Amino acid sequence: MLASENFPTHHFKESIFKPYSTSGDDLASVTPLTAAAALVASTSSPADSSSAVAFETASKMLTTTNSNNNNNNTTSAKDDLSSFVASHPAAEFEGFIRACVDEIIKLAVFQGTNRSSKVVEWHEPAELRQLFDFQLREKGESQDKLRELLRETIRFSVKTGHPYFINQLYSGVDPYALVGQWLTDALNPSVYTYEVAPLFTLMEEQVLAEMRRIVGFPNGGQGDGIFCPGGSIANGYAISCARYRHSPESKKNGLFNAKPLIIFTSEDAHYSVEKLAMFMGFGSEHVRKIATNEVGKMRLSDLEEQVKQCLENDWQPLMVSATAGTTVLGAFDDLAGISDVCKKYNMWMHVDAAWGGGALMSKKYRHLLSGIERADSVTWNPHKLLAASQQCSTFLTRHQQVLAQCHSTNATYLFQKDKFYDTSFDTGDKHIQCGRRADVFKFWFMWKAKGTQGLEAHVEKVFRMAEFFTAKVRERPGFELVLESPECTNISFWYVPPGLREMERNREFYDRLHKVAPKVKEGMIKKGSMMITYQPLRQLPNFFRLVLQNSCLEESDMVYFLDEIESLAQNL
Ligand code: ABU
Questions:
Q1: Atom 7, ligand 1: which residue's CA is nearest?
Q2: Ranges for all domains in the chain classified under CATH 3.90.1150.170
């Protein structure tokens, strides 16, 4: 029997699973004949005259499948039915899925993050095109070929979870976040209505409320928040909410015939503030870049000066986007001081704490963000300093209604108000996205596993390593810090090779120093030994920027980074 006589057939039409079987889950007990019947049901319409032929073919194929069951199910009927494979994990895919997941665990999760493995196997684009089969074809590939492609995809990808990947503002593979991410991919929800994402809707509410409480918004974290696709978009939400609060009519009329609204941010702020302002029709001219001081913080005197100039031009100061942890230097703006200026000129205060927000988890380091509790809104990305998997980005605001007021359009095909449950839990209309991943789960799961204390310990470990690295750079010949006392876990420094050390610090010296970091970077990528980024900043020549978020790193790793840079630069 395929299933209970009373079970409606449409429930298993595309599957050879035994629904509601009481005799255990042994897939091998599905007979070829019943499996073939199910396959035919899934591939032929009842009126299809070729059904009988299809039945016979499928029956033969499934006999092969069953005889291969002892072989992990890796070769199956689907190899021969590649012109049609239903979007459904039918039983014969179990072996394939398990084999693939095993390989991902072995090669990407463990081998790929082992210190003895390469961070990257580098190839030029033309060479990589030859090495990897990118071509899409009329006919599908066999499962063996697909597994080979999976292995090669891992082989040719950068292992961003490797301890020696210190290149960007994300790294590491948190085991709990990884499992969380896999689960949400398996469940594939879209967090816009309670009816399709009940648990994740409540989980978002819980996590965002706790984050607001940690930020320090009034009344134990009043306000609202959302998970969004990256810090850039979160910063865009800030601009959108600020605009709405300033001119609610802009929701209907846009920016036409209105006074120019001005956004202030520092010259070291993330580029997304300008990008999103352009995207939203403000124009880059209306994003005023405020000078930073010698340690990378926004100069309040310049801010106030530019606000006054803007008023003199009859432009409207709208908001300040302060930064807590700048991308390059890791500087924290004076948030309390910026809040005073915002109050004085009635501007929205946003804090882009995408990078540095993680420090709020630590009693020892949260003082860096002192004043954030006075902000109107905050961007905070757990996928950065807290090392949740990409992407996990939040926008938090102290204003309870503004997101919904500002963005809702009340689409009746999704947010029907006459549903049988409390539709205030259909939270999707306050987002600008429609479909939306449940990024909350990986973060909630790791937070649940580690506790707030565990997240605090993580943050304090990476800060401790950053301080150790800074001390080593200070004392080691040839290494020079860009900032004598970096505030966050990004440490910027130069390496001056022996051949340059005796030179006078003139134009020629700086020109030559400018070329050191790119050459060393090329060497490390081709060798696969580590990945660290470099950049110039204003008049400063190229320097390295180490970024730490992976709490598996130890003091010996810090020494390795310095040794490796020194060794790669020995012939420069
Ligand atoms: N939003 C992050 C900027 C890129 C990086 O430096 O890692």
A1: 168
A2: 99-120+158-176+447-571
169 ligand 1 Cβ < 6 A: yes
Output the six-digit token pair for 227: 């998970």
Q: What is the DSSP letter of 406?
A: H
Residue 265: strand pairing partners: 289, 321
* pTM of the predicted protein model: 0.86
pLDDT single digits (tens) 153-192: 999 999 999 999 999 999 999 999 999 999 999 999 999 9
Closest CA to 137 of 83, 88, 93: 83
Residue from 165, 169, 274, 549 to probe ligand 1 pocket by mutation (most atoms less than 8 Å from CB): 169
Residues 418-465 pLDDT 10s = 999 999 999 999 999 999 999 999 999 999 999 999 999 999 999 999
Per-residue pLDDT for 359 more than 90? Answer: yes
Outline which parts of the chain fall under CATH 3.40.640.10.
Answer: 190-409+421-437
- Which of 321, 327, 531 has the most ligand 1 atoms within 8 A of CB, as the residue to mutate? 327
Whether residue 525 has pLDDT greater than 80: yes
User: Which tokens sit at 498?
Assistant: 């022996």
Q: How confident is the model at residue 70 (pLDDT cuts 50, 70, 90)?
A: very low
Sheet holding 316-323, edge to edge: 224-228, 393-397, 377-380, 348-352, 316-323, 261-266, 287-290
CA–CA dist 191, 56 (Å, integer):
43
* The CATH number of domain 190-409+421-437 is 3.40.47.10: no
Q: Rounded to the nearest whole angstrom, what is the distance from the C-alpha of residue 327 to the centroid of ligand 1? A: 6
CA of 545 to the centre of ligand 1 (A): 11
Q: Output Rg (C-alpha) for the chain, integer angstroms.
A: 28
Is the shortest distance between the CB of 428 and ligand 1 below 6 Å?
no
Q: What is the mean pLDDT of the chain?
A: 89
Establish whether residue 330 lines the binding site of ligand 1, counting it when its CB lies within 6 angstroms of any ligand atom: no
| Pocket-testing residue among 168, 271, 272, 321, ligand 1, by greatest number of atoms within 8 A of Cβ | 168
- Does ligand 1 have an atom closer than 6 angstroms to the CB of 168? yes
Structure confidence at residue 2 as a pLDDT band (50, 70, 90): very low
Q: What whole-number distance in Å separates Cα of residue 84 and Cα of residue 81? A: 6
In this predicted structure, the answer to whether residue 274 has a pLDDT above a threshold of 50 is yes
Token pair of 512 as six digits: 């030559």
pLDDT(36) > 80:
no
Do residues 546 and 491 make contact, with C-beta atoms less than 8 angstroms apart? yes
Q: Can you tell me the mean pLDDT for 91-97? A: 95
Ligand 1 site, residue 292, Cβ cutoff 6 A: no
- Residue matched to tokens 């979007």: 87
Q: Evaluate whether 43 touches 85 at the Cβ level (below 8 Å).
A: no
Residue 372 in contact with residue 351, Cβ under 8 Å?
Answer: yes
Alpha helices in 439-554 (DSSP H): 440-475, 498-501, 507-527
Q: Would you say domain 99-120+158-176+447-571 falls under CATH 3.90.1150.170?
A: yes
Residue 426, SS3? coil
